[in-house]
Design goal:
Length: 63
């Protein structure tokens, strides 16, 4: 299993969000995304927590 360290980017939310709202993002290595089978045409993924870990899987439900 390949591991890589990343920082979570935090930014103040805009639009109609509350004044203390914050948005969170994380950049993913391109090769890991390709290995999931994500393409510009088929980019749906499932995101969930399990045993304190954030899991990202390719969403195959629309195939």
């Amino acid at each position: 299993m390949e591991k890589t360290k990343r920082n979570i980017m935090m930014q103040k939310a805009g639009g109609n969000a509350g004044k203390n709202s914050v948005g969170y993002r994380i950049s993913l290595p391109a090769q890991m995304v390709r290995d999931l089978g994500v393409t510009p045409e088929d980019r749906a993924v499932l995101l969930y927590m399990e045993d304190g870990k954030l899991i990202i899987e390719k969403d195959h439900s629309e195939e």
